[in-house]
Amino acid sequence: MKSTLAIAALALLLACSPPSGEKNGPGEAAPAPFDGVAPVLAQAATPTPTYFLAGQVVALPRQGRVTAQESGGGLPAELAATGFSGETRLLASGAVLIEYESRVSEALPQSDNGGPNLLYEPGAVDPAAVTSDMQTHTEAMRQAVAELDAVIADLRRSGRYEHVSRNWVFTPAQAGAPNDPSYPRQWHYFSNGDGANQAPGGAGFADYWAAGRTGSRSVVVAVIDTGLEAGHPDIDGSGNVTGGYDFISDPWIGNDGDGRDNNPADPGDNVAPNDPGKPVFCPPQPEASFHGTHVAGTVGAGGTNNGVGVAGVNWQVTVVPIRALGRCGGALSDIADSILWAANAHDPARAPVNPQPADVINMSLGAGAACSANPLLADAIRRVIARGVVVVAAAGNSRQDTAGFTPASCPGVIAVAANDARGHLAPYSNYGARVDIIAPGGDLGRDDTQDGNGDGVLSTRTSRCGTLSEPDRLCRYGYFQGTSMASPHVAGAVALLLAHEPALNEGALEGRGARVLARLRATALPRNATQCPRPCGVMLNMRPPDAGAPSAP
C-alpha cells in the first residue's frame, strides 16, 4: 500500500558570521571563536501546521486485543463490510495502524512519482500559505477529510476500541564556567542579571554549575527528534551518548533507505524541490537541519569543559537518541512508539528492549491539534509518566495558545515556551495557561547581547559538512531559535535536578514530574506584563536550592 507522509516546517536563515581571531578565555569580554569554526547557520521558528496522513487511522483495541483479521494484516470487519480495501499493522504501543484506500484518493494532489498524500484541517491553514495545488484540490481535500471522519466514527461505534484518531503529523518546534571556547556566546546558560557574564534571559545554569552540580551519567534523557550526529567532534568520545533507535517506518521520510532499525544516526532531512517522491504540500528544504543534534547538544550530548566547541546543560548525562522525525516531519504512530520504547513500556514483541530506559523524555516537536485529538499519544505519555518518567515538550511556534498543540497540552507534560535574551516571550512562541515554564529559545532578529550575532541558541549541528552549502568550517555549530531550543534547556535542567537533589526521586513514581516542576518553579523568576504580554509561566532560573529565593524582576 502506498504510504503517506508529513509536512515539515523547517526554514534555514543565514546569520552574520562572527569575526575570526585568537581564542579568548570564558571570563574575557570579547567573544571566543569556535576553534576556528564560525556559527553561521540558524533555524527560523516556523508555525506548526495542522496536517495528518491521508487514509490512516490509529486505534487502540480494548484490553490490548486485536482480531485475527487485523493481526493478519487485514482491515477491521467494520471497514471491510463497507467496501474499503487496505491493510493493518500492529504497533509497539499495542495499537493498530489502519491504512485504507481512500475513495477520493485519485482526486488528491500527488507527487510526480505517485508519492504520499497529506490532508490538512479545513480552515486551520493560513490562506496566505496555501499553494495553488492545495487551492485546486480543496474540494477533494474536504471530501477526504469527511471520509476519514466517517471511518473513525464507524470504528468508534463498533465498541472494540479504547480510542480511535487520525495519524497526525508532527514537526520540529523550533534554540565556574566551562572552558569550551565558545561558551561566552551561550548567553542562555548565564546567570540571570545585567552584570558581567550575566544575561536578563539567562537560565542560571552557571550558578548551578558553580555549586559543583554538573550532572551524572546515571540520569538518562531520551531525545525524540531527527536522530544524532554521533561523529560530531564535540560529541564523539564524550561518553554522554548511548544506544538509541530509529522508529521512522517510511523509508522516504527516514531518508536512510530502510524502515525501523537500531541506527539513530541522522542522514539529514533536506528535500529537493524536484524530488519525485516529495509530497505536494511538503516545502522544499535545501539543507538538512540536523535538528536532533542541536537539541541533544543543549541537553549535554557533547563534552562540556573539554576545551572544544560549546557547552551543554549537563556536563555528564546519558543521552539516548530516538529518530521519529525525518523528511517532512514524523507520524503520530512512530512518535507514540518512540515514547513507549524510551521507557520500556512498549510491546517487546514489536521492538527490542531499551537497555537504557529514560528518566526524562524531551520532545522538541508538535502538531497543531489539542491532546484530546491525539489519544494514542496521550495514552503513551500517561504510561511512561506512571513509570516515573518526566516528559518535557516544546509549546510550539505559532503565536497561539498552547492548549491547541500536542504533545505540550497533554496531561502531565511540562510545556515550555521560549524567551529571548531579554527574558521576554519570544515573538514566535506559543503561550497560554497551559505553559508551565519559559526558557531560552532565542530571537535571531535581535542582538541584545551585543556580540555581533543574532540572539539564537548556540549548539552542535553536524560534521558531515558536505551536505551543506556553507564551507566545511562553518557548519559544525549553529544558532537556532524556537521552542525546540527552549525545551531541552528544561529537560537538561530536570536531569541536573534528578542527579543532585535525591528528594525528587522519593515518593510515588507517577508523582516525580510534579515534584520536579514544583522544584523548578521554586527558583524560577516571575514575568510581568511587559515581559510576557500573554501568559507564559515563570522563567527557568537554575539557582541551587540553598541560594535563597529569587528576587522579582
Structure description:
This protein is an alpha/beta fold and 553 residues long. Helices cover 19% and strands 18% of the residues. It has eleven helices and 21 strands. Strands 11-12-10-14-16-17-18-21 form an eight-stranded parallel β-sheet, with helices on both faces. A hairpin with a 5-residue loop joins strand 4 and strand 5. Helix 7 packs parallel to helix 10, helix 8 packs parallel to helix 9 and helix 10 crosses helix 11. The radius of gyration is 22 Å and the shape is globular. The chain starts with 10 loop residues before the first strand and ends in a 14-residue tail after the last strand. 58% of the residues are buried.
Which properties best describe this structure?
single chain; 553 residues; alpha/beta; eight-stranded parallel beta sheet; seven-stranded antiparallel beta sheet; 11 helices; 18% strand; globular; disordered N terminus; disordered C terminus
